[in-house]
Amino acid sequence: MRKVISFMHISLDGFVAGPNGEMDWIKVDEEIFDHVGKRISEGDTALYGRVTFQMMESYWPTAADKLEATKHDIEHSKWYSKVRKVVLSKTMKDADPIAIGSTNTKIISDNLSESINEIKQVAGEDILLFGSPTATHALIQEDLIDGYWLFVNPVILGRGIPLFLDIKDKINLELLNTRQFTSGVTELNYLVVRK
């Protein structure tokens, strides 16, 4: 069965964004882009919350076409155009081509557990959940996340949007690997251990 892996930048004190959604504290550079690019190139399904999806959809479909496009822009834009996208949203509808952009996008607005488990049963690679703290919180509540791919940034925010919110039960994790980047960011790759 496929796994849902939450891919998230996080502060040392557990926040994924500042109080107003600020992400200007996140450190990204070519070293991180290359590392992440290799990992996600194997993925065939991206999972987003509505806000993150709309942010992605406003940039990535045409990012490679810009004169100032970087290597990362070109590679990620190519990947984004071919990957299947799943969006968790109560307001967007599958039938609205303006809202969903590309045709390989599925909207899940209800029956979260059943819908995600159906996607997990379809043959393919891991399902990568990008950012999307609200969607992540909903998936955690339903015990639908199978792993955490965290990039711990060397900053303490003090307040903001936490990655883990209202956890009902303890979540046991197995550390698969770590990596230190020259920027000071540390990658932590965990698998959820279920009894």
From TrEMBL:
Pfam families named among the record's database cross-references: RibD_C
UniProt-listed GO biological process terms: riboflavin biosynthetic process
Matches recorded under InterPro entries: DHFR-like_dom_sf, RibDG_C, Riboflavin_Biosynth_HTPR
GO molecular function annotations of the record: 5-amino-6-(5-phosphoribosylamino)uracil reductase activity
Residues annotated as domain Bacterial bifunctional deaminase-reductase C-terminal: 2-185
Protein name as catalogued: Dihydrofolate reductase
Native organism: Algoriphagus aquimarinus
Lineage of origin: Bacteria, Pseudomonadati, Bacteroidota, Cytophagia, Cytophagales
